[in-house]
Amino acid sequence: MTIMLEEILREYMHVRGMTLATAESCTGGLVSDRITNVSGSSEFFPGGVVAYAYEAKVKLLGVSWDTLNAHGAVSKETVLEMARGARKLLGTDIGVSVSGIAGPSGGTPDKPVGSTWLGLATNTGEWARHFIWEGDRVYNKHHSSEAALQFVIDYLEGKLA
Question: What is the model's pTM?
Answer without folding.
Answer: 0.96
